[in-house]
Design a protein that fits this description.
Helices cover 67% and strands 0% of the residues. The chain has 122 residues and is mainly alpha-helical.
Length: 122
């Protein structure tokens, strides 16, 4: 009977250790993905900001683009495409979407108290 209890104890201990190993691996993998996504976001955001500024100038906002600016724009577009292709290749087959989420809002939202602005409650 003691041997049976010892085996059950070993089995339970092994199962708990394996579960802990898997949990640590998932945490590590998730942190790796989040770190990569953050770094990719920082890199691509800077390139996108430059491209957006040049696009705005193309639309007539600000000084006209020079031939050098157009070459710079084309090189930035090519660089962005190359970076994204390398990131795609790195994550191919993983099923993970590495692409950082686009910023939807560029400002602070302030909650207005409900009594503010209501006639007769000021």
């Amino acid at each position: 009977m003691d041997e049976h209890i010892r085996r059950v104890g070993e089995f339970v201990g092994d199962a708990l250790q394996e579960g802990a190993r898997q949990a640590k691996a998932e945490i590590r993998d998730n942190a790796h993905r989040q770190g990569f996504t953050s770094a990719a976001g920082i890199t691509l955001r800077r390139v996108d900001d430059e491209l957006d500024a040049l696009r705005n100038r193309m639309k007539g906002e600000g000084p006209k683009l020079t031939q050098t600016d157009l070459v710079f724009y084309a090189k930035l577009e090519e660089l962005k495409t190359d970076i994204e292709a390398e990131f795609d290749q790195f994550w191919r087959g993983s099923g993970i979407d590495w692409r950082p989420r686009k910023t939807l809002v560029k400002g602070v939202v302030r909650r207005v108290p409900e009594t503010e602005g209501v006639a007769g409650l000021d």
